[in-house]
Every structure is written in C-alpha cells, then in structure tokens.
Amino acid sequence: MPLSTADTTLHLSHTTPFNAPHQRSFTCSVNPVVLFSILDHYLRRNENQDRVIGTLLGVRSEDSSEVEIRACFNVPHNETAESVAVDMEHHRTMYELHHRVNPKEVIVGWYATGSNLNSYSALIQDFYSRETTPFPAIHLTMDTTLTVAGRDGMGVKTYVSAPVGVSARAENCLFLPIPCEVKYFDAERSGLAALPTGHPSTHTFYYFVCMRVWAYM
C-alpha cells in the first residue's frame, strides 16, 4: 500500500525520554534473536535500499505496561522521495503463519534499521498503530553505521508515538523514547558466552553486534 506525505509535514522527535500528558509508564524487553534477525535482514537487503523494515511480535503483561519482543519478520517496502509503499499482504500472510505456530505472540510494533526518524517513519507507525489497537505500537530502530552503537551501547532504541497538532494526520506524530533491555533465556546466554572466543567474520558489523549483545549480559 502506498503511503505519501506532503512537504508541509510536521515531524518532531525528542532524544531524551519524557512522558506526554496522560502517557502511562511503559517499558519493553527484546530477545537477542530478534536483533540478529534484523541484522540478517539488513545484510541481505537490495543494494539500493537504505534501510529495511519488519514486524515485531511478542507478548504483553496483564496491565499492558510491559512488552516482551520475542520474534520478528521482514516486510518488503520501497521508499522514494515522494512516497513509501509497504507490502501489507506479505505482512498479514506472515503474521497468520506465525500465529498458527505461536498463538500467544501478537503484533506489538515494527522495526527499522538506521537511527533516524523521518516523516515516512510516522506514516508506517500509523499503520502499525492500527494493527496493535488499542495498545501502542512499538518502533524499534537499530543503528547500522556503528557510530551510534559505539557511543550508546548497541545502537538499539525503542519508541511509542503520540499525536501532535490540531489536525489528526498520520504524519503528525511525536516519537517518545521508552526503556528497553535485552532479555535472555539460559540457552541463549550460553551460546552468546562463546562468541568472544571467535574471530570477526567477513561481516564485521555482524560480529560487532554480537559483541555488543554479549556486553549487555
């Protein structure tokens, strides 16, 4: 489905966490398998793609104040200077297949590589917000330039959104940073513990992220 935005788009983003009016406390955790899946998607992208996106799956606490991101899958999309198109049929087909195997895991948001938030991010966020209604959609970003990852841990950040402006337009969106931690199971911790004994592969960034995940244990 094509999404478009006008040149007059109002887009705001804050780099420090804060609570918007009537915004409840909200936190999330992410399984390391999700981070590696996102990285694998990025490494397999088409040469003309600046970033890749996909759907996040997980479970919510009883009061919906905590979300555990357990899995993800990629969603084909195309961005140009004028519009962004997201393959929603692929998104829904993949979710139906995943839901048959893991019925407890639902759509909780979406991911994108890169650390920047733009007007297209707001449009895609609007789509996923409708998929997660009445709960907020989480947007996870993973930096792939190493610059943010080197300065701010793994370069992984998570957000929820809130409308801004007098008119209810999809692109009028405020991204609010929320706390996020990496959550391991015992088997994954044992596997990650062996990573520092290896050597960097041809995919230096993949090895780098492995090391950053290990540092968070």
UniProtKB/TrEMBL annotation:
Alphabetical GO biological process terms: proteolysis
Gene3D superfamilies named among the record's database cross-references: Cytidine Deaminase, domain 2
One of the record's GO cellular component terms: eukaryotic translation initiation factor 3 complex, eIF3m
Keyword rRNA-binding: no
Keywords associated with the record: Hydrolase, Protease
PROSITE patterns, alphabetized: MPN
Annotated ranges, domain MPN: 28-165
InterPro entries referenced in this protein's UniProt entry, alphabetically: eIF3f, JAMM/MPN+_dom, MPN
Molecular function GO terms recorded: metallopeptidase activity; translation initiation factor activity; translation initiation factor binding
Protein name per Swiss-Prot or TrEMBL: JAB1/Mov34/MPN/PAD-1 ubiquitin protease-domain-containing protein
Organism: Jimgerdemannia flammicorona
